[in-house]
Amino acid sequence: MNNYSKSDRFILFTNKILLCGIVVVVLFPLLYVLLASLLEPNVLLSKGLSLDSSDWTLEGYRKIFEDGSIVRGFINSMLYSAGFTLVTVTVCILAGYSLSSDELVGKRFIMIFFLITMFFNGGLIPTYLVIKNLGMLNTVWAIIIPNAINVWFIILSRTYFKSIPNELKEAARIDGASEFKIFLKIVFPLSKPIIFVIALYAFIGQWNSYFDAMIYLEDRDLYPLQLVLRSILIQNEVQPGMIGDQQAAAELQRISEMIKYSSIVLASLPLIIMYPFFQKYFEKGVMVGSLK
């Protein structure tokens, strides 16, 4: 700090204040939802957020795990997100590596073809008809396959692979290694940052997605968690199994409020747990993959 001028110190101090404000703005809704999921709805409406443990209850979480639709939706979302991430990373990394090679014939045409798809597509109805004619309606593949190829991920991985020194690959070729072996033994171990970045983006995007499932899935047993939550949060639908048949409408509303907040916390947990493990690769992968 002693080497900074007064203007530099002022800018750094201002940045710290702004960052602290941003942290508060981001954390407050998270803490509100977390505490609200532990409070009785009547207490939340009358007293607001309360740190008194006597006002807390785990009934909302208990109702969630008693009901099959939310647990089933959570499992479905994990399977969809994991499968989508695996397919996306595999396809985009292999495509990016191929396009990073100077020996690939017609790579400029291929890149132009890919770039066109970023701005133009067939639209919802033609896409629906294609998926229907392929027999993927009401199947897992309708969620995983259509959006698995992401042009931005291909460009990101292509740029990253071009930053790897050609001398490493040339030395392997001199030793008689095939192109696949070069990728598997040399390039792949050096590509952890970009792989983890693409995996994180793909997993988050699929985890938060519900529109494709709403269009292509009819069987409620195949619904992802986000579509189940949409019914609870937007349409205010609570499954009859969550409450007793003889309970009053007021009790239904009470349970509904508890389940809303508890479901939001449950849906956020995988992303909150994943990010610390991916964070060390995140900055390096984005910067190296974006600039050359």
TrEMBL record:
Residues 74-277 form the ABC transmembrane type-1 domain. One of its GO terms (cellular component) is plasma membrane. Keywords: Cell membrane, Membrane, Transmembrane, Transmembrane helix, Transport. It comes from the Bacteria. Belongs to the binding-protein-dependent transport system permease family. Its main location: membrane. The keyword Cell membrane applies. GO terms for biological process: transmembrane transport. The keyword Nucleotidyltransferase does not apply. It comes from Rossellomorea marisflavi. It is found in: Cell membrane. This is Sugar ABC transporter permease. It is a multi-pass membrane protein. The chain crosses the membrane at residues 12-35, 78-97, 109-129, 141-161, 182-204, 258-278.
